[in-house]
Amino acid sequence: MSTAVADQKPAAPAAVPTFTATLVIRRFDPDVDDEPRWEDFDVELYETDRVLDALHKIKWETDGSLTFRRSCAHGVCGSDAMRINGRNRLACKTLVKDLDISKPIYVEAIKGLPLEKDLIVDMEPFFDSYKEINPFLMAGAVKGGKERKQSPVERARFDDTTKCILCAACTSACPVFWTDGQYFGPAAIVNAHRFIFDSRDEGAGVRLDILNDKEGVWRCRTTFNCTDACPRGIQVTQAIAEVKQAILKGRP
């Protein structure tokens, strides 16, 4: 015996909830402004939106002159580092709903580097310091053309500092870097650490001599700002302390 089945319409999809957030952005156009100025924008967002999505919406729908860097948008390239509510973060990894949206969200360029426009700074001084520590493997030829072997324990010794994406979040969170244009900064020291403790590298002495300079590791005041700011979770302050110990006692 057959049973008739009544036609049923599919249920309408539930509406995705939205909310309105106010972003207060520190703007600067060198062709117009003598000093940076704050400008606020009300943006309708979804719960899953990030600060980067909010910036995109402002740029695409409200003010096309808003200027900021971004590339991969997945926390790998590090190009969208900026200060969000007074803390260095990646805009692509910061969910708006995780911030206090009952208050305005303040967004500005990272500190300690020359401001070019809006949220963009000149990264050349940062990369100059990075280049000074010889961020590459320094090793002679292997006899017989064999590979350079390294044990898992030896590899683990510098694993943490290989995670650096050169976003400058740690360096531009450092109060010493803000006031001393000659300080190498945490990111350069982290990248030196990566090679200093690599068992295959033969240039540890050269890098340690460079970082033993008055503007090297001894300028660090151990405030942990750099560790707190790192979007990759690198123990930056610990890496700097280990480089200091290597200078005093030699690489273990």
Automatic annotation (TrEMBL):
<keyword id="KW-0479">Metal-binding</keyword>
<keyword id="KW-0003">3Fe-4S</keyword>
<keyword id="KW-0816">Tricarboxylic acid cycle</keyword>
<dbReference type="Pfam" id="PF13183">
    <property type="entry name" value="Fer4_8"/>
</dbReference>
<dbReference type="InterPro" id="IPR036010">
    <property type="entry name" value="2Fe-2S_ferredoxin-like_sf"/>
</dbReference>
<dbReference type="GO" id="GO:0051537">
    <property type="term" value="F:2 iron, 2 sulfur cluster binding"/>
</dbReference>
<dbReference type="InterPro" id="IPR050573">
    <property type="entry name" value="SDH/FRD_Iron-Sulfur"/>
</dbReference>
<dbReference type="InterPro" id="IPR025192">
    <property type="entry name" value="Succ_DH/fum_Rdtase_N"/>
</dbReference>
<comment type="similarity">
    <text>Belongs to the succinate dehydrogenase/fumarate reductase iron-sulfur protein family.</text>
</comment>
<feature type="domain" description="2Fe-2S ferredoxin-type">
    <location>
        <begin position="26"/>
        <end position="113"/>
    </location>
</feature>
<dbReference type="InterPro" id="IPR012675">
    <property type="entry name" value="Beta-grasp_dom_sf"/>
</dbReference>
<comment type="pathway">
    <text>Carbohydrate metabolism; tricarboxylic acid cycle.</text>
</comment>
<dbReference type="GO" id="GO:0006099">
    <property type="term" value="P:tricarboxylic acid cycle"/>
</dbReference>
<dbReference type="GO" id="GO:0051539">
    <property type="term" value="F:4 iron, 4 sulfur cluster binding"/>
</dbReference>
<keyword id="KW-0001">2Fe-2S</keyword>
<dbReference type="GO" id="GO:0022904">
    <property type="term" value="P:respiratory electron transport chain"/>
</dbReference>
<dbReference type="GO" id="GO:0051538">
    <property type="term" value="F:3 iron, 4 sulfur cluster binding"/>
</dbReference>
<feature type="domain" description="4Fe-4S ferredoxin-type">
    <location>
        <begin position="154"/>
        <end position="176"/>
    </location>
</feature>
<keyword id="KW-0560">Oxidoreductase</keyword>
<dbReference type="GO" id="GO:0009055">
    <property type="term" value="F:electron transfer activity"/>
</dbReference>
<dbReference type="InterPro" id="IPR017900">
    <property type="entry name" value="4Fe4S_Fe_S_CS"/>
</dbReference>
<dbReference type="InterPro" id="IPR001041">
    <property type="entry name" value="2Fe-2S_ferredoxin-type"/>
</dbReference>
<dbReference type="GO" id="GO:0008177">
    <property type="term" value="F:succinate dehydrogenase (quinone) activity"/>
</dbReference>
<dbReference type="InterPro" id="IPR009051">
    <property type="entry name" value="Helical_ferredxn"/>
</dbReference>
<keyword id="KW-0411">Iron-sulfur</keyword>
<dbReference type="InterPro" id="IPR004489">
    <property type="entry name" value="Succ_DH/fum_Rdtase_Fe-S"/>
</dbReference>
<keyword id="KW-0004">4Fe-4S</keyword>
<dbReference type="InterPro" id="IPR017896">
    <property type="entry name" value="4Fe4S_Fe-S-bd"/>
</dbReference>
<keyword id="KW-0408">Iron</keyword>
<dbReference type="Pfam" id="PF13085">
    <property type="entry name" value="Fer2_3"/>
</dbReference>
<protein>
    <recommendedName>
        <fullName>Fumarate reductase iron-sulfur subunit</fullName>
        <ecNumber>1.3.5.1</ecNumber>
    </recommendedName>
</protein>
<dbReference type="GO" id="GO:0046872">
    <property type="term" value="F:metal ion binding"/>
</dbReference>
